[in-house]
Amino acid sequence: MTNQWMVNEINKIKKEKKALILAHNYQIPEVQEVADIVGDSLALSKAAAEAKEEIIVFCGVHFMAESAKILSPEKKILLPAIDAGCPMADMVTAYKLKEYKKNNPNTAIVCYVNSSAEVKAESDVCCTSSNALKVVNSLEEDKIMFVPDKNLGNFIKGKVKDKEVEVWPGFCITHHRVKGLEIDRIREAQPDAEILVHPECNKEVVEKADFIGSTSQIINYARKSNNKKFIIGTEMGVLHKLEKENPDKKFYLLSPGLICTNMKKTSLEDVYNALKEEKNSVLIEEDIRKKALKPLNRMLSL
Ligand code: 13P
Ligand code: SF4
């Protein structure tokens, strides 16, 4: 089977079944190209919630497809690579969070969407990297626990003045490994380039960057900037859109380690098989789903 044959089949079956294909900005180029919408976590959550289609093929990792299912239980949400998880999402459990809540009853739990449905069910409000500050500022509580990403949590903590923000000790294994020294070296080699990084990077990287934002915020920034050279401090998948949309600009990856193996698990063949056989449907226990829906809806209503 050639790629072109598979692309044609995917488009044909998609029409017949009235399905929608969503892909995260970190997916491989071939998968991004067959998707109806390519975006960051927030855009994809909104698209899943608003979609009229009854079948959604979610090309991303498990928590993303799960969030779509929480928002749209009546739809069939298919995850083409069923073993594509997020190691950071596994760094907080509902059990540990419940224990924390017992000891800290007046603290609001802000939950990054990179988390399980069970953890969301124990949280007050969800956020993504593009709206985390807005979400935290919208809360009445003075004390916040940010789960599970300590890097995004600390980035927000530095921007919030009137609240006490505690962070859970989780992190993204892909972004966290980038070193401040890598920024210093690249700055010296490319002094005229702008450095754009994701807030999942650690403090020493974030502090030295020119712009910090979600995957789509990075893409939008590069599109609007008059600069011609950019150093990209997030997963390499974003390079596809950046290069496609800006043929006159140059993009370099900040670190060779910026590859998320889980985001790279979805192949074109997986998309084809999931769509054709309607397999890898994401399921959630109804009482957990109902509880997890509240913090997600609270985020989306902001
Ligand atoms: P965003 O697309 O929201 O920036 O998320 C990044 C990420 O790590 C998703 O797993
Ligand atoms: Fe999880 Fe990091 Fe991969 Fe995103 S890039 S899915 S946070 S491991």
Level-2 CATH architecture of the largest domain: 3-Layer(aba) Sandwich
- The fold-level CATH name of the largest domain is Rossmann fold
With strands numbered from the N-terminus, the spatial order across the biggest sheet is 2-1-3-4
Mean pLDDT: 97
CATH top-level class of the largest domain: Alpha Beta
Number of strands: 12
The percent range for helix content is: 40-55%
Bound molecules: 1,3-dihydroxyacetonephosphate, iron/sulfur cluster
Order of helices and strands: HEHEHEHEHEHEHEHEHHEHEHEHEHH
Integer-rounded radius of gyration: 19 Å
How many H/I helical runs?
A: 15
Q: State the low-pLDDT regions, or none.
A: none
Domain count: the total is 3
Distance between the termini: 46 Å
Shape: globular
Structural class: alpha/beta
* Strand percentage: 15-25%
CATH superfamily of the largest domain: NadA-like
Family: Belongs to the quinolinate synthase family. Type 2 subfamily.
Organism: Anaeromonas frigoriresistens
Binding site for [4Fe-4S] cluster: 86, 172, 260
EC number: 2.5.1.72
Features:
302 residues, alpha/beta, Rossmann fold, four-stranded parallel sheet, binds 1,3-dihydroxyacetonephosphate, binds iron/sulfur cluster, 4 iron, 4 sulfur cluster binding, EC 2.5.1.72, transferase, metal ion binding
Structural account:
With about 300 residues, the protein is an alpha/beta fold. Helices cover about 45% and strands about 15% of the residues. The protein has 15 helices and twelve strands. It has helices spanning about 5-15, 30-35, 40-50, 60-70, 95-105, 115-120, 130-135, 150-155, 175, 180-190, 205, 215-225, 240-245, 270-275, 285-300; strands at about 20-25, 35-40, 55-60, 75-80, 110, 125, 145, 165, 195, 210, 230-235, 250-255. It has a four-stranded parallel beta sheet with strand order 2-1-3-4, with helices on both faces. It has a four-stranded parallel beta sheet with strand order 6-5-7-8. The longest helix has 15 residues, at about 5-15. It is globular. 1,3-dihydroxyacetonephosphate binds near residues 86, 114 and 172. Iron/sulfur cluster binds near residues 175 and 260. It catalyses: iminosuccinate + dihydroxyacetone phosphate = quinolinate + phosphate + 2 H2O + H(+).
